[in-house]
């Protein structure tokens, strides 16, 4: 069974008297452990697709299954539960709270989940160690580089052991070398069984993932898996 399955998914929005067709009959499956990029120009529907996949919204019509659960018509509470239990998010702007330490930022999702203080600290430290920032736990975001802040954001996305991580333009605010390091980290997480889905407008970024899902005018026009050696991955030389 695919981890993510969309069948004839349509999403329409109304802006005043105008109706916008954002997604037009999307069929898509993503398996556990895949590392994929959703790519398309501005206005193509890729952000709308990520919002649906991330259980931030529901389709106008069609069927959407996440980990075997039909969320096509789920309530706000059910969507919130799915996000908390199965999904992690990483954003271009990091979305860290500047007055909190690295440890406190990573602990935040577990506070919302009602996890005890002791377990929060233990799980946060495990996630921080996975992104190799254990020597920065007492620092605030303003004391970190862009790459370090993105690693904190990834650690925060990992603490609830999600099945899927969605990353929206995760290298957009990073230099090329740091961006390569972040992409390599995502690859390592995928190898460990976590499903990673990037959303990007950058074809060079998408070319470094084993699978590319291209969307235009609300339709998927290409969904191919690529040999990572041919995709440019072998040319990456990230540094820790």
From TrEMBL:
InterPro entries in the record: AAA+_ATPase, ABC_transporter-like_ATP-bd, ABC_transporter-like_CS, ABC_transpr_LolD-like, MacB-like_ATP-bd, P-loop_NTPase
Keyword Zinc: no
Record bears the keyword Cell membrane: no
Annotated signal peptide: none
Residue ranges occupied by any ABC transporter domain in the UniProt entry: 4-239
Keywords tagged on the record: ATP-binding, Nucleotide-binding, Transport
Cellular component GO terms, alphabetical: membrane protein complex; plasma membrane
PROSITE patterns: ABC_TRANSPORTER_1, ABC_TRANSPORTER_2
Gene Ontology terms, MF aspect: ATP binding; ATP hydrolysis activity; transmembrane transporter activity
Family per similarity comment: Belongs to the ABC transporter superfamily. Macrolide exporter (TC 3.A.1.122) family.
Designated name of the protein: ABC transporter-related protein
């Amino acid at each position: 069974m695919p981890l993510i399955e969309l069948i004839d998914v349509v999403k329409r929005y109304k802006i005043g008297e105008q109706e916008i067709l954002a997604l037009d009959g999307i069929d898509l499956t993503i398996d556990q452990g895949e590392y994929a990029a959703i790519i398309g120009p501005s206005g193509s529907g890729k952000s709308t697709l990520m919002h649906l996949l991330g259980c931030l919204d529901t389709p106008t019509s069609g069927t959407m299954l996440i980990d075997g659960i039909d969320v096509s018509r789920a309530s706000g509470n059910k969507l919130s539960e799915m996000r908390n239990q199965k999904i992690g998010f990483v954003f271009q702007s990091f979305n860290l709270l500047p007055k909190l330490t690295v440890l406190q930022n990573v602990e935040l999702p577990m506070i919302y989940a009602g996890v005890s203080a002791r377990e929060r600290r233990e799980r946060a430290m495990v996630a921080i160690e996975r992104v190799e920032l254990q020597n920065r736990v007492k620092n605030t975001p303003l004391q970190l580089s862009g790459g370090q802040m993105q690693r904190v954001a990834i650690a925060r996305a990992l603490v609830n052991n999600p099945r899927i991580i969605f990353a929206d333009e995760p290298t957009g605010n990073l230099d090329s070398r740091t961006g390569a390091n972040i992409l390599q980290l995502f690859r390592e997480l995928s190898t460990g069984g976590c499903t990673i889905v990037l959303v990007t407008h950058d074809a060079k970024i998408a070319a470094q993932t084993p699978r590319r899902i291209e969307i235009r005018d609300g339709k998927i026009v290409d969904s191919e898996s690529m040999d990572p050696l041919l995709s440019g991955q072998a040319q990456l030389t990230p540094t820790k």
